[in-house]
């Protein structure tokens, strides 16, 4: 017999909403260099370009969309406080999200510019200049059912 799990909307929404709550008042740190193999891997030679902060309620409630077997549940980030003083100059390639303690890793993901493809985190531009403002265009959590 094949392994074909499909979850109900409510089950997947509960999972995404629980994960989204981990981001409340947390951080997104944007880096240049190669993204680690997983979010448990310590940083290496990557350069921190920018740190941004999630609000008290980081994500809106999730919602299902699509049709079986391609149905997904998505949660969109609420406004994320911009970084008004980028730490370094470079090209953003990946991010690490942290809980509000600033040390507990939630996830890593890819970074790209608006209109340049599909990325986990979208910025207006991936070219970051030290001292300038960095704003996130969009950030979503998506889970297949």
Instruction: Kindly state the number of beta strands.
Output: 11
Shape, principal axes of CA atoms: globular
What is the helix tally? 1
Q: What proportion of the residues form beta strands (DSSP E)?
A: 35-45%
User: Order of helices and strands, N to C?
Assistant: HEEEEEEEEEEE
Q: Supply Rg.
A: 16 Å
The assigned structural class equals mainly beta
Distance between the termini: 20 Å
Average pLDDT across residues? 92
Task: Summarize the biggest pleated sheet.
Answer: 9 strands, mixed
How many structural domains does the protein architecture include?
Answer: 1
Helix content: under 10%
Strand order of the main beta sheet, please?
3-4-11-9-8-7-1-2-5
Low-confidence stretches: none
Can you describe this structure?
- The chain has 145 residues and is mainly β.
- The chain has one domain (9-144).
- It has one helix and eleven strands; from the N terminus they run H-E-E-E-E-E-E-E-E-E-E-E.
- It has one helix at 9-21, and strands at 27-32, 47-54, 63-65, 72-76, 80-81, 90-91, 94-98, 105-113, 121-123, 127-128, 136-144.
- The longest helix is centred in the first third of the chain and has 13 residues, at 9-21.
- The radius of gyration is 16 Å and the shape is globular.
- The two termini are 20 Å apart.
What can be said about this structure in brief?
With 145 residues, the chain is mostly beta strands. 9% of the residues lie in helices and 37% in strands. The strands form two sheets. Strands 3-4-11-9-8-7-1-2-5 form a nine-stranded mixed sheet, with helices on one face.
């Amino acid at each position: 017999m094949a392994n074909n799990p499909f979850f109900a909307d409510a089950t997947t929404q509960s999972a995404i909403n629980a994960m989204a709550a981990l981001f409340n008042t947390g951080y997104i740190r944007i880096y240049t260099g190669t993204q680690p193999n997983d979010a448990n891997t310590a940083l290496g030679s990557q350069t921190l370009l920018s740190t941004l902060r999630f609000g008290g309620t980081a994500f809106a409630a999730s919602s299902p969309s699509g049709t079986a077997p391609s149905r997904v549940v998505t949660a969109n980030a609420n406004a994320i406080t911009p970084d008004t003083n980028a730490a370094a100059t470079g090209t953003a390639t990946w991010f690490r999200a942290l809980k509000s303690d600033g040390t507990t890793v939630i996830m890593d993901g890819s970074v790209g510019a608006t209109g340049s493809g599909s990325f986990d985190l979208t910025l207006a531009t991936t070219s970051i200049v030290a001292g300038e403002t960095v704003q996130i265009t969009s950030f979503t959590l998506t889970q297949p059912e």
